[in-house]
Design brief:
This protein has about 400 residues and is of the alpha/beta class. The protein has 3 domains: about 100 residues, no CATH class; about 170 residues, 2-Layer Sandwich (Nucleotidyltransferase, domain 5); about 130 residues. It has 16 helices and 12 strands. The strands form 3 sheets. Strands 1, 2, 5, 6 and 7 form a 5-stranded mixed beta sheet that branches. Helix 6 links the parallel strand 11 and strand 12. The two termini are about 25 Å apart.
């Protein structure tokens, strides 16, 4: 059996046959001969007219521990549909790539499951090549119809780099929180870009949007999708209540310390007893709450107010939510606790959006889980030098993309 015949059977290159095999110190170079004569533009237009031609190599899957390259003559054509000169499409590689489709799929499959440093060492490709391959695979396999059929979406921000560098992430509540859109930034213009890409017709189909209590996302939604019901994420509401408790605890600690009272250290250590879920409190933490109650401490009232906010989202009947929220707002306003008076004003301004979240049962819990996964992806890659690189990894790992191994 000839060497070219053996390599034909081993490699199984679609649309080409092996014409030559050269063993070099760097690895194996396999020369290909194409079966078709027509040139195909990546847009699908075909012609026989050749603009120019030159040789090109593509890195392929390693063979028996040796690096392997595919080499052939590649041609350019003047595409009448694109109205410009473009390089022809070849079946074994994606347009503009310098790695074969099989190698790119393997790199993307491994990048979904391990850090890039390990991928570079196993496959002997550079860190930059892995980043480019991920972008190419995501561009090729990202479903263009992912923005169709959106009815309930969640919007949240996630930090991806120090220096207050943020991404805005949009997920679909009806598709298990799959990421459908991401972009650098966290202001109103960033979310407006999503609504512009969505288009007026698909925006009209939106029914509800869950977001935080910030004004930026609300402003963009009011401007581009005013008909949708905005739901304030319960996580952010409870988080604001916890921050009010902690702010009051620090004030109490400073008062005790200022008067030189020996109880200042004890007040400082009440933090977790005040912030934790009552169902998970230890015996020692329960004892702290009982002590605060017996002393009629302002911190115990803070704890009651915080639990009152949490009870809003644990009601058996959502129809009771308006009455419960109004009762809590009146209680917080009369509490004379500055942090909770301020919080009551914030929640009163967002009353309709909070009640919509209770009625529809929407929260950004899935998005908060996604944010943790995104931080893990960023940490696993030891940081990313550009927003495009981390966004491509987000789509690859959280966008519902399934990469098939080339040898399965």
């Amino acid at each position: 059996m000839r060497v070219s015949t053996a390599f034909n059977k081993i490699l199984g290159i679609v649309g080409a046959t092996v014409a030559s095999v050269t063993f070099t110190p760097e690895g194996i170079v396999v020369g290909l001969r194409r079966r078709r004569t027509k040139l195909a533009c990546p847009c699908g237009w075909k012609t026989r007219a050749v603009y120019d031609r030159h040789a090109r190599r593509w890195r392929h899957l390693d063979l028996a521990g040796s690096k392997l390259w595919l080499e052939t003559e590649i041609r350019r054509l003047h595409c009448r549909r694109c109205q410009r000169v473009r390089t022809e499409e070849v079946p074994w590689a994606r347009p503009g790539a310098r790695h074969s489709r099989d190698l790119q799929d393997l790199v993307a499959y491994m990048a979904q499951r391990m850090d890039k440093t390990t991928v570079t060492r196993l496959l002997r490709v550079s860190w930059e090549a892995v980043a480019r391959i991920v972008v190419d695979v995501v561009t090729d396999q990202l479903d263009p119809a992912r923005l169709d059929g959106l009815f309930r979406i969640g919007v949240d921000e996630v930090s991806w780099r120090k220096g207050h560098r943020y991404l805005t992430v949009v997920a679909d509540h009806d598709r298990n929180g799959a990421v459908v859109w991401a972009k650098e930034g966290r202001d109103a213009k960033t979310l407006e870009a999503f609504y512009v890409e969505l288009g007026e017709e698909r925006c009209a189909q939106l029914e509800a949007v869950s977001l935080d209590m910030g004004g930026a996302y609300k402003k963009a939604t009011d401007a581009r999708a005013a008909h949708t019901r905005q739901c304030v994420d319960p996580f952010h509401v409870v988080k604001a209540a916890n921050e009010a408790v902690d702010k009051t605890r620090r004030w109490a600690w400073n008062v005790h310390r200022g008067f030189g009272l020996p109880t200042s250290r004890w007040v400082k250590r009440t933090r977790w007893a005040l912030l934790k879920d009552p169902d998970t409190l230890k015996e020692s933490q329960l004892a702290v709450l009982h002590e605060l109650r017996r002393n009629r401490s302002v911190l115990y009232r803070c704890w009651q107010l915080k639990e009152g906010v949490r009870d809003l989202f644990r009601l058996a009947d959502p129809a009771d939510a308006p009455h419960h929220l109004d009762w809590w707002l009146a209680w917080a306003c009369r509490s004379r606790i500055p942090a909770f008076v301020t919080l009551s004003r914030t929640l009163r301004a967002n009353r309709d959006r909070i009640l919509a979240a209770v009625e529809l049962g929407l929260s950004n819990s899935k998005l908060e889980g996604l944010n943790s996964k995104i931080r893990l992806i960023n940490h696993r890659g030891y940081g990313h030098h550009s927003a495009a690189a981390i966004i491509a990894m987000i789509y690859l790992c959280c966008g519902g993309i399934t990469v098939e191994l080339p040898f399965t």
